[in-house]
Automatic annotation (TrEMBL):
Keywords: Hydrolase, Signal. This is Serine hydrolase. Residues 53-267 form the Beta-lactamase class A catalytic domain. InterPro entries: Beta-lactam/transpept-like, Beta-lactam_cat, Beta-lactam_class-A. It catalyses: a beta-lactam + H2O = a substituted beta-amino acid.
Length: 312
């Protein structure tokens, strides 16, 4: 348990604060394709050994790029954003309390992450389980949250009711076994996942208060070696990433100085299945993130520190 609280303290003290959230929609009514950016990104994605989809939107100007943005991809751990939404929808009914104490049982064990390493009978607040789901992508904690949300069907119903009709939880969800075999834990499109993150940012997911809490959780990311490594460390981001053997994905909303932008890159059927920093999908995440930062913030002189790879 000591290691759990040390990690919680580290995440709490090192995570930057989130700016005050507006409850007013921030969507641009004038979304338009950005041909210059599209050409740059098309060239960057060319030659990738696998399938790739990308969605980009600059929230202030409405400039957008969509490359296979409505194609279904495996979510891997990015499904933990919809799980959080489903959980907060249940919290809103009063059936659960965010700070209530939970009791861990060995029957919940999925893998040996932080939650899965707890002893049978250990007590932990629900709020900490949610934080671990989003920040370190704890799988046992995430499946626990999925169950507490009412299961995959309840989460999928919330997604459908809120206009996200391509994003679905598959695992441990009745009637979705065929989808699970094809896509794994969940499925989504780059456009929907990016717009779900914007939906939370705008205070429209469950309630303004719930959205703010969810957004704060998404601003504390331990796995920051790919897309986030190409964004200055003093710039606030909300994000979630995911990876399985043949897929790498990341969705990021960047609070850039000259206007927020969101992007989601997803891959599948990758030939490169290596679990290394030089995996082609991981490299593509860094390259796309760097290009977008330089494009939207052309006067920025920030560059990733020389030799930073030795740490990551």
């Amino acid at each position: 348990m000591r290691s759990l609280y040390v990690l919680l303290l580290i995440i709490g003290y090192l995570s930057p604060s989130v700016p005050a959230q507006s409850t007013q929609p921030r969507r641009s009514d004038a979304r338009r394709n950005d041909p210059k950016l599209e050409r740059k990104l098309t060239d960057l994605l060319a030659g990738f050994r696998g399938d790739v989809g990308l969605y980009v939107r600059h929230l202030k100007t409405g400039r957008t790029v969509s490359l296979n943005a409505d194609t279904l991809f495996p979510t891997a751990s990015t499904i933990k954003i919809p799980i959080q939404c489903g959980l907060f929808a249940r919290l809103a009914t009063g059936e659960l309390a965010y700070q209530q104490e939970l009791i861990y049982r060995d029957s919940l064990h999925y893998d040996d992450g932080i939650v899965g390493s707890l002893k049978d009978g250990a007590r932990i607040p629900l709020s900490q389980v949610v934080m671990l789901m989003e920040s370190v992508s704890d799988n046992t904690g995430s499946l626990w949250c999925q169950a507490l949300a009412g299961g995959g069907q309840a989460i999928n119903s919330w997604l459908d009711a809120n206009g996200f009709r391509q994003t679905r939880v598959n695992s441990r969800t009745p009637s979705r076994e065929a989808n699970r075999k094809q896509y794994g834990w969940g499925q989504t499109t780059p456009r929907e996942l990016a717009e779900l993150l914007v939906y939370i940012r705008e205070g429209r997911a469950v309630s303004p208060d719930a959205s703010e809490r969810m957004y704060r959780n998404l601003g504390r990311q331990y796995w920051d070696g790919d897309a986030l490594s190409q964004i200055p460390p003093d710039v606030q981001v909300a994000t979630k990433n995911g990876a399985v053997n043949q897929s790498r994905s990341e969705v990021v909303l960047v609070h850039a100085p000259h206007g927020e932008y969101v992007f989601c890159l997803m891959t599948k059927n990758q030939q490169d299945e290596r679990w290394t920093r030089t995996n082609e999908g991981a490299m593509l995440l860094r390259q796309v993130s760097a290009l977008l930062w330089q494009y939207f913030e052309p006067r920025s002189t920030w560059k990733p520190a020389v030799g930073y790879e030795k740490w990551w």
